[in-house]
């Protein structure tokens, strides 16, 4: 397992403001990138978006390492 520098993580997440991607795909992509960077046993990502058009969106995705 590895650690991520908080400032780098912040800039990585802020970079998604410029990416044309749907919310559900953004959550999966962030989880995939973080798992590749950290190699955790398990990880969860929850994205809580601001209300747009009267709809509040929260996207939750999780990763569980398989036993080798």
UniProtKB/TrEMBL annotation:
Matches recorded under InterPro entries? GTP-CH-I_C/QueF, NADPH_dep_7-cyano-7-deazaG_red, QueF
Entry's Gene Ontology molecular function annotations: preQ1 synthase activity
A Pfam family the protein falls into: QueF
Give the GO biological process terms. Answer: tRNA queuosine(34) biosynthetic process
**Top-level division of the source organism's lineage:** Eukaryota
Protein name, entry field: NADPH-dependent 7-cyano-7-deazaguanine reductase
């Amino acid at each position: 397992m590895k650690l991520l520098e908080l400032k780098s993580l912040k800039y990585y997440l802020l970079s998604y403001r410029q990416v044309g991607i749907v919310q559900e795909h953004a959550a999966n992509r962030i989880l995939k990138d973080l798992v590749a960077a950290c190699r955790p046993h398990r990880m969860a990502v929850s994205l809580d978006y601001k209300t747009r058009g009267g709809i509040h969106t929260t996207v939750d995705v999780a990763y569980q390492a398989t036993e080798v």
